Amino acid sequence: MLKRLPFDDALRSTVGIPRQSKLLDSSPRSRVWRVRLADRSLVIVKQITDGGDTGADADTRFAREVAGLRLAGRATGPAVAPAVIATDVPARVMVLDHLDDLGKTDDWMPGYAESLARLHALTGPDDAGALPAWSGPTAADAESFLALARSLDVPVPTGVLDELAALLDRLDPTPHHALLHGDPCPGNDLRTTDGVRFVDFERASLGNGLVELAYFRIGFPTCWCAMSVTAAPLAEVEDIYRTTWRGLTGRDVPGDLADACAGWLIQGDALVERAHRGTVDQLARVPTDDFEWGYISARERLVHRLGVVADMTRGHDHLHAVGRLSSTLAVRLLQCWPKLRPLPTHDTRPWF
């Protein structure tokens, strides 16, 4: 693999001479090598590939990841991401710190939550424009959610349309500038002796950190390995996140976690892997096709999310009608397909 390693003379003069390399597993949108240099040190070399995109899209993903990693490099104390050692922009290559991953642990979530809060707290209003704003649900997503209810003969309560319109307004990322990872899933969080560090920042953005704190409740919506976290572990990790954020910023986390969860619920694209997002109305497929992503089906993901939003919005000032619709939709899905399984619990997360 050494002869195929994208390591030009400029990188050799900056980083060192590569002596051994191993191509690692990665998405079709990138190639990743672990490289041993002549001085025996290890680095990671990542090249962003077209992966079905146009070259311009690949260039954008490269720039986005490098920008996200460099912003993450502001962390004082333990790092929250690998450092960028060098880049080859025309070849879309970045050379990163090699991280020694400690591997499996049963109690993985507290460290994840702390590092996630530390990552989110690294940026502020002065960083506006350094990354794209977070891309959340749209009016089309809200309409698709209502169309799903109608297709399953579930009555839409009065007020739902107004509540969804107001929800979209509240989810506007413009007032928020937290450094969002974009895909903080198992495999993108590495355990090191200094804490959790995140990798793969191709979807990094600026927005409200609650949209990623919501992963614990809503079932890790951008991940093939969706999981359920409940009761005491959920309360612990959310408290760790909020306490860490408050300690770093001097203020409480802005916004409403119920809003963030409802935002994930109505996004059909959060039912499929990245390559299939933006192609068709995924919610419209649910009544006739229980498509799988990983080992979990779309209907199983959806039932979990509906239940979460229903539970969080009981007595909620702004999402009461949406919560009642979510509860009824969850019941209807289970009536139609009684063999749907609950999401696996967090202690069954895969390790890579």
What does this structure look like?
The chain is built from twelve helices and eleven strands. The chain has 352 residues and is α+β, with helices and mostly antiparallel strands. It has a five-stranded antiparallel beta sheet with strand order 1-2-3-5-4. A two-stranded antiparallel ribbon has the order 6-9. The protein has a two-stranded antiparallel sheet with strand order 7-8. The mean pLDDT is 94.
Strand content: 5-15%
Question: Which structural class do you get from the secondary structure elements?
Answer: alpha+beta
**What does the largest sheet look like?**
5 strands, antiparallel
Tell me, rounded to a whole number, the average pLDDT.
94
- The whole-angstrom Rg is 21 Å
Order of SSEs: HEEEHEEHHHEEEEHHHHHEEHH
Number of helices: 12
Measured between the Cα atoms of the first and last residue, the distance is 22 Å
- Fraction of residues in H or I helices: 25-40%
Strand order of the largest sheet: 1-2-3-5-4
Number of strands: 11
Which parts are unreliable, with pLDDT below 50 for 5 consecutive residues or more?
none
Shape: globular
Can you lay out the helices and strands and say which pair or pack?
Layout: H1 9-15, E1 18-24, E2 30-37, E3 42-48, H2 55-72, E4 84-88, E5 93-97, H3 109-120, H4 139-151, H5 160-170, E6 178-180, E7 189-192, E8 195-198, E9 205-207, H6 210-213, H7 215-218, H8 231-249, H9 257-265, H10 282-285, E10 292-293, E11 296-297, H11 298-312, H12 320-336
Antiparallel strand pairs: 1-2, 2-3, 3-5, 4-5, 6-9, 7-8, 10-11
Helix pairs in contact: 3-8, 9-11, 11-12
